[in-house]
Amino acid sequence: MRRLTLPLALLLAASLAAMGLSASVGSANLALGELWAVLSGGGDALSRTLILELRLPRSLSAFATGGLLAVAGALMQVLLRNPLADPYVLGLSGGAAVGALAAMLAGLGGMVISGSAFAGALLSTLLVFGLAHGTGSWTPSRLLLTGVVVAAGWGAVVTLMLALSPAERLPGMLYWLMGDLAYARTPMPSLLVLALVCLLGFPLGRSLNVLARGPMQAAALGVAVRPLEWTIYVTASLLTAMAVTTAGSIGFVGLVVPHMLRLVLGNDQRLILPACALAGGTLLVLADTLARTVIAPEQLPVGVITALIGVPTFLYLLYRSR
After folding, report:
1. Is the pLDDT of residue 44 over 70?
2. Whole-angstrom Cα distance, residue 256 to residue 130?
3. What is the secondary structure of 148-182 as a DSSP string?
4. How far is CA 315 from CA 15, 308, 321, in A?
5. Are 92 and 148 a contacting pair, CB within 8 Å?
């Protein structure tokens, strides 16, 4: 048990430190004493507004989004038994992008854009699963190939929509496509789903460990392979849809974080899934803090920061694992 709790405790401490840094740093920096005063119920009105209404909700949204993507990436790598699988490999981000951009082109905003993105992601999930299943059963390779083709189709639709959209709406659409947390204000649903999946994933950890070695071995050891695969697919799709709905398409979090943790902690899914939730959330909180402050008061899309961090990190991990 200590082997499981010690890494999670360290990751939790790192998450809290990242949240504190994110809440205190920005175009107007706050001392740790001011931050503590606001969180304990005091502080002046300006500091309370800055932290409780602007920075803290955005930081919690970043943490939830990063955790959702990292856990979804870990589940997809178990499902497809492919170390290069990530949450977007089955075209969910493309479907969400089409839904969100369609709402933007219609002049809608706020929750309508988020709802349209979620609907597009679910449509892509049903489309990929239906095409991969066909009249028989699906295999990981068939599911992966179907997802790649559907993602390419969504990409063509997104390009067409951008080409036909009015010039005044292009900046907002492009920022959404690159990943943007500027309008994320409702973190609680994502946080609740993330916590629920981590809690439910612990009792399924042993079955996931066996499934990662192959379906035949899992079936021989008494694991109900097909229901477990369906559960993983639906869960990963839901997590990805919620993440994309919150912050747009943010790359490399769901790909790099599971790899890093497996190199350090091993491949026990009972530990990897909650560790991915904490590490992915911490990574995205730090990336969002950097995106807000590097050219303050202007902001960068957080997806740019994660790509700049993720590309060299993943190349280094590949070099280490030769």
Report:
1. yes
2. 29
3. HHHHHHHHHHHHHHHHHS-GGGHHHHHHHHH---T
4. 25, 12, 10
5. no
Inform me whether the pLDDT recorded for 188 exceeds 90. no
171 CB-contact burial (10 Å; exposed 0-12 / middle 13-18 / buried 19+): exposed
- Confirm if 73 and 102 have CB atoms less than 8 A apart: no
Q: 33: which DSSP letter?
A: H
Residue 156 in tokens: 């063509």
When pLDDT is cut at 50, 70 and 90, the band that residue 286 belongs to is very high
How far is CA 280 from each of CA 18, 106, 159, 193, 314, rounded to the nearest angstrom?
A: 12, 34, 29, 15, 14
Fold of 2-320: ABC transporter involved in vitamin B12 uptake, BtuC (1.10.3470)
What one-character-per-residue DSSP string does 179-209 give? ---TT----HHHHHHHHHHHHHHTTTHHHHH
* Sequential DSSP letters for 290-320: HHHHTTTTS---HHHHHHHHHHHHHHHHHHH
Q: Which two tokens stand for residue 154?
A: 């969504």
Determine whether 142 is exposed, middle or buried from the number of CB atoms within 10 Å of its CB (0-12, 13-18, 19+). middle
Residue 10 has pLDDT above 70, yes or no: yes
**Alpha carbon distances (Å) from 269 to 7, 56, 80, 232:** 13, 30, 15, 13
Q: Where are the domains of the chain?
A: 2-320
Quick check: 282 pLDDT over 90?
Answer: yes
Residues in the chain: 322
CA 211 to chain centre: 23
pLDDT recorded at residue 55: 84
- Report which DSSP code applies to 89: T
Amino acid at 145: L
Residues in CB range of 63: below 8 A, 6 or more apart: 15, 18, 19, 187, 191, 281, 282, 284, 285
The helix/strand/coil state of 11 is: helix
